[in-house]
Amino acid sequence: MNTLLPTSTAGSLPKPSWLAEPEKLWSPWKQEGEALHEAKRDALLLSLQEQSLAGIDIVSDGEQTRQHFVTTFIEHLDGVDFEKRETVRIRNRYDASVPTVVGAVSRRKPVFVEDARFLRQQTTKTIKWALPGPMTMVDTLYDSHYRNREKLAWEFARALNQEARELEAAGVDIIQFDEPAFNVFFDEVNDWGIACLEKAAEGLKCETAVHICYGYGIKANTDWKQTLGSAWRQYEATFPALQASSIDIISLECHRSRVPMELMELVRGKKVMVGAIDVASNLIETPEEVASTLRAALQFVDAGKLYPSTNCGMAPLARSVARGKLSALCAGAEIIRQELSAR
Ligand SMILES: [Zn+2]
């Protein structure tokens, strides 16, 4: 990136109400068949337009073509029965009805590659594409076949790697793996989570990112955060190994959260997508609030490696709120760019 402090989002943005019921996770589609395909594409274009108008430098599809950041990818794999649903506890936090792994998992066809190609045709900006990470995938389904989280994660890593290579070929500049599970299962992260993540990113020439957050602004997550005490030190358990990993960019939650800023020091040398927008509140940040978070982060991240971003996806927010937050993010980043150039 040539731009200093290039802005981006963690990934998802709200969907228009004609595509899916707003302000809801796993919201059902409102169209079917060809009409749904067209509606998804229209929503992707709108989402790109909103990012561009706000001044976002690294754009995405706003995850408009997927119902959920994890399950939509899983849905496209062989070996997963989507009709056979079980209720599991996700990230030790909340129950959800999820699909079941009933046989060997494999990716016989591309999942998002056509969508990525479509986005590439619409813009010359840097584009980032989000995929779920292997560990978070394992944590978002019921496994009646492998009955072993690590084994299943390696299978997912292979499928993700096939998808990632094709996304790269379609013109994606940054491939991001979402691993909120990295903030929960620390032993597993260090035993096999990061190794599986690297497998998913193996052989890619484009940049790679891992997004680790405290989740969407839904009640189960905000309740969980209440139990974490005054300093959230979860990143401390995984950052040293991530610093030594092959992943280029670490995307983390920061703004209005209790993550001690100095933990960023643990990934010194990596590019850091600093969450400077709170996705768990409808309150729109002022540019100055964004700037003050970025200013604080600059103590631990070199300016050339700081990517202002959002704490997490904004899918569950109202569109007007998300738009306001995108603008605030860009205006806040601009304040810091001015400060840096005045030095
Ligand atoms: Zn997130």
TrEMBL record:
**What domain of life is recorded for the organism?**
Bacteria
Q: Name one Pfam family in it.
A: Meth_synt_2
The record's section on SUPFAM superfamilies has: UROD/MetE-like
Could you give a single Gene Ontology term from the biological process aspect? methylation
For this UniProt record, the keywords arranged alphabetically read as follows: Metal-binding, Methyltransferase, Transferase, Zinc
Q: Which residues form the Cobalamin-independent methionine synthase MetE C-terminal/archaeal domain?
A: 5-329
Cofactor needs: Zn(2+)
Give the Gene Ontology MF terms in alphabetical order. Answer: methyltransferase activity
Q: What is the name of the protein in this document? A: 5-methyltetrahydropteroyltriglutamate--homocysteine methyltransferase
What does the organism's lineage look like at the top? Answer: Bacteria, Pseudomonadati, Pseudomonadota, Betaproteobacteria, Burkholderiales
The gene designation is metE
